[in-house]
Amino acid sequence: GTGAVAVAHPNIALIKYWGKRDEHLVLPRTDSLSMTLDIFPTTTRVRLAPEAGRDVVVLGGRPAEGEALRRIVTFLDLVRHSARVPHRAVVESHNTVPTGAGLASSASGFAALAVAAARAYGLSLTATGLSRLARRGSGSASRSVFGGFAVWHAGRPGQDTKAADLGSYAEPVPVADLDPALVVAVVDAGPKAVSSRAAMRRTVDTSPLYEPWAASSRDDLTQMRAALLRGDLQVVGEIAERNALGMHATMLAARPAVRYLAPATLTVLDAVAQLRRDGVGAWATMDAGPNVKVLCRRLEADRVAAAVREAAAGGAVHIAGPGPGARLLPE
Ligand code: DP6
User: Fold this and answer.
1) Mutational test site, ligand 1, from 14, 17, 136, 285, max ligand atoms within 8 Å of CB
2) Nearest protein CA to atom 7 of ligand 1, as residue
3) Which atom number of ligand 1 is nearest to the Cα of residue 32?
4) Does residue 256 have a cis peptide bond before it, meaning omega lies within 30 degrees of 0?
5) Percent of the chain residues past pLDDT 90, beyond the cut
6) If you average pLDDT over every residue of the chain, what do you get?
7) Quick one: what percent of the chain has pLDDT higher than 70?
8) Residue 245 Cα, ligand 1 centroid: separation in angstroms?
9) What mean pLDDT is predicted for residues 111-128?
10) Mutational pocket test of ligand 1: of 16, 146, 184, 196, the residue with most ligand atoms within 8 Å of the beta carbon
């Protein structure tokens, strides 16, 4: 057919992706590991428009413009090139997460777009191939192609373009029974001051803490994979929290500093620490924004959500479990 619809969910990294070694191919400097959520899906329809002279992109009912439009058109150019089909497209996307709030809307967005565009343009890709394709739109989108826990391989540096592209994709991570939840505290749903793309570039270029964090992140990943396999949520949580705080430390040390953490972020972190003193397993992670995601046991998620809600001063709180990978929907 000449159209397709796909849905994808956001993911939250427990081992962060922060820093590229190749901007064009979106190749990261380190491996990362995430949980795909069962909330905030993005649904995207792609229809080929053989008569049209340009792509039409509608996000949440409004025509896309500027940087958002440019990124999507560049992505479609890549799909057209691979499929050897020149036609322009009409893209309509509906996002249920506030954009620009560090809630990974680019991850669900480009994962859904990759799956829908690949089908619409007649590219038959494996899940691995879809993950590589989604990566080109936004690095974290490579992980949202898969449900549950996924690891995104950085691949080996210093290879030719083709080999480098092939070596960097996400895949599911084996886990024991964890029954995890992520409590999402929306401290501020407004758009972020600095895009994660620009912020990670500045961090790599100027932060003296970047290389040490990247090195420790490699150990964090090894230890977290082992903890996931044996079902040790406590160790998973401890590693996730230190990895995220370390990432923010690299940004704070950048010149000029990039600071996403807000006063309310720290208030929520205090509430998480208090939960732990009260014997509740809860560990925080933050992305390119002030919002806090708290990893805990599903059975304790309501208690964690209540504590976090009180601390988040009026911000919305959502409870997520592990969600599904990106998939086509019937048209
Ligand atoms: C802090 O995937 O949005 O959420 O590849 O430039 O599009 P681009 O960046 P993006 O960065 C996500 C950064 C993060 C950590 C993570 O999701 O691993």
Assistant:
1) 17
2) 138
3) 18
4) yes
5) 89
6) 95
7) 96
8) 15
9) 98
10) 196
Decide: pTM greater than 0.95: yes
Ligand 1 contacts CB of residue 106 (under 6 A): yes
Task: Give the model confidence (pLDDT) of 89-105 as tens digits.
Answer: 999 999 887 554 456 57
* For the CA of 135, the nearest atom of ligand 1: 5
For 247-295, what is each residue's pLDDT tens digit?
999 999 999 999 999 999 999 999 999 999 999 999 999 999 999 999 9
Our measurement of the distance from residue 81's CA atom to the centroid of its chain's CA atoms, rounded to an integer in Å, reads 25
CA distance 66 to 73: 11
In 3D space, the residue among 274, 275, 245, 273 whose CA is nearest the CA of residue 261 turns out to be 245
288 lines ligand 1 (CB under 6 A): yes
The predicted complex's ipTM stands at: 0.99
Q: At what angle do helices 210-230 and 233-252 cross, to 10 degrees?
A: 170
Please list, in sequence order, all residues whose beta carbon lies within 8 angstroms of the beta carbon of residue 303, skipping any fewer than 6 positions away.
Answer: 275, 280
Q: Which residue among 21, 26, 140, 169 has the greatest number of ligand 1 atoms within 8 angstroms of its CB, and so is best to mutate? A: 140
Q: How far apart are CA 283 and CA 183, in angstroms?
A: 10
Nearest to 91 by CA among 105, 110, 78: 110
